[in-house]
């Protein structure tokens, strides 16, 4: 569900996460599927490329996995991405501020997909709304990452580099280095994420 404003650009910048109808929190779904496959935490960690302590925290709903972590978990748990979230589908290449493609996910973080469904797409473009006090877990993967802050102040880490990014500031780096962002402020951050390769697709298969 999105908030309606007269100013279309304002509506885009203040999008809300959709109301959720799934019965189980994400952590319970991760644990239930892991148990069904007879996997230990370490075995799932090996399959997904995520750490066992992080998965344990996610299962107990003590941390909120990002969409990128959920893609890795879906692969490790041999389920479709829709087991955790619903990625908006469209054949359009033009996107309007009045109708953002909001990702349906149980998370305090909001995501709007800015990518089209091009065949063999090479990149993801996502608008991310990060609430005060939220920190993403460390991650690393092949590809390149570009971050650009639209609103707020964001602490961004990439390898040995840590920077406080404000509106208009950006960072472009090799995704193989350990990276994460956190919002240490008391205000919401709006971040543009662009990354390769394209991970974030509803039809992504395990």
Q: Can you describe this structure?
A:
This protein has about 210 residues and is α+β, with helices and mostly antiparallel strands. It has a domain at about 85-195: Jelly Rolls (Sandwich), CATH 2.60.120.10. The protein is built from five helices and ten strands, in the order αααααββββββββββ. It has helices spanning about 10-15, 25-35, 40-50, 50-60, 65-75; strands spanning about 85, 105, 110-115, 125-130, 145-150, 155-160, 160-165, 170-175, 180, 190-195. The strands form three sheets. A five-stranded antiparallel sheet has the order 3-4-10-5-8, with no helix packed on it. It has a three-stranded antiparallel sheet with strand order 7-6-9, with no helix packed on it. The longest helix has 12 residues, at about 25-35. The protein starts with 7 loop residues before the first helix and ends in an 11-residue tail after the last strand. Residues about 1-10 and about 15-20 have low confidence and may be disordered.
Briefly, what is this?
The protein is α+β, with helices and mostly antiparallel strands and 206 residues long. It has helices at residues 8-13, 26-37, 41-48, 52-59, 67-76, and strands at residues 85-86, 104-105, 110-113, 124-130, 144-151, 154-158, 161-165, 170-174, 179-182, 189-195.
Task: Kindly list the characteristics that best describe this protein.
3-stranded antiparallel β-sheet; 206 residues; disordered N terminus; 10 strands; alpha+beta
